[in-house]
């Protein structure tokens, strides 16, 4: 009897979705390491096609998803409840905290501290001979745009579609193919559906593996500074293992642990914000933040549609929107494979309007506050001649080292670095907890809608998410190329996103007519 039950549990696992993506990623990694030059040439060619030749697709998709999300919130469908429970499963604070911390990873801290410096020396809108005031305005506004309403719409609208699938249509599978059922129909369990799900997990694995490459060097530099040791691969691996222990423990405890971790993460995040704000130029931060938001509002549609056809803002053959806006939209699209599923799971009991407007508001509150305070602090050092961060990056300096130069301007540098380390570990753990729960759900053929994936699958995927970045850490070129692969993968994922949104509206229209 016990053996029969064990066999049933093994049979409940979707081995195709579980193992095929790992095999694909393994062979891609081997090919990239054995034939780096040939692989680099091929990937560069594909990147040129998808970014330079088809970049308009990402731009149109981003603006379209945002307008559709807002339109849906205020439409007749906005009052539809996502679930049969009397009140939302989570309080507004916990819900908002989980949306922000479980979707951003530690990238939000890294980019908040340094992204402005890349734009300070760039030429958005092909503006040559920019004045100091113009550089400051663009450097403060573009980060808010790239982490603003359009990126969050990539998460929130699919999240509503998934929540409707879970709590209204009551479908059991937690996969992209299931979300496309109204479009795929009988092909959902066949080759088209299988291809969609396997491709989705491959793209997610590549994206999550490369996410560590952005912020881990900063974490390593901060730890090395605190303990007065040298930065080396062993230190980076140790840090990843510490992060792994935190998020494996939390993911085993499930949603309750993730909710508590998200709350802790928000508290630590605001402590770090408080340090920068109280120790920084307060009036400058407030005025620069207000100005940046105003610049985005005033130029939103220009920013959202500018493709620089003449490439007058060219940097290395690409225009500014190709290097940044299209890159960011592709990066956000690649993450829609998992993040919206988590937002959907925690949104039970809310209406479509509450989920869209609340999700956008919580996301923007977190990202805008982060970029205004952290970014504004660094921008002040730049514009007042204290730290030439933009110049250092232009000369090829390590971004992590540049960020530490900015930290050195705080009167309590070491305390701030300790808080940064704790915040980054908490952000990483919170985000990868959420993703692990989602991908573990991919691996199950059937499960109760309210049930969490079995612990064995959660541990399996948690280990996979750790092993990939550790393995790739020893090959910087391979890591860079995999990051490019995740960008390329965003094009077909964008098409899948359109299919999911179409299926969602097909479902709600059909259900509305049936009543």
Structure summary:
This protein has 22 helices and no strands. It is an all-alpha fold and 515 residues long. Helix 8 runs parallel beside helix 15.
Explain this structure.
The protein is an all-alpha fold. The chain is 78% helix and 0% strand. The termini are far apart. It has 22 helices and no strands. Helix 2 crosses helix 3 and helix 8 runs parallel beside helix 15.
Topology:
Blueprint: H1 2-11, H2 15-34, H3 36-53, H4 55-73, H5 92-104, H6 107-120, H7 132-146, H8 149-167, H9 176-179, H10 181-184, H11 191-227, H12 233-253, H13 255-279, H14 282-305, H15 320-335, H16 339-345, H17 352-383, H18 389-394, H19 399-407, H20 413-442, H21 455-472, H22 476-514
Helix pairs in contact: 2-3, 2-11, 3-22, 4-8, 4-15, 4-17, 5-13, 5-17, 5-20, 6-7, 6-17, 7-14, 7-17, 8-15, 8-16, 8-17, 8-22, 11-12, 11-19, 11-20, 11-21, 11-22, 12-13, 12-20, 12-21, 13-20, 14-17, 15-22, 20-21
Provide keyphrases for this structure.
disordered N terminus; mainly alpha; 22 helices; 515 residues
Let me know the number of strands.
0
Query: Nearest-angstrom radius of gyration?
Result: 22 Å
Number of discrete helical segments: 22
Give the helix level as a range of percent.
Answer: over 70%
Structural class: mainly alpha
Low-confidence stretches: 1-8
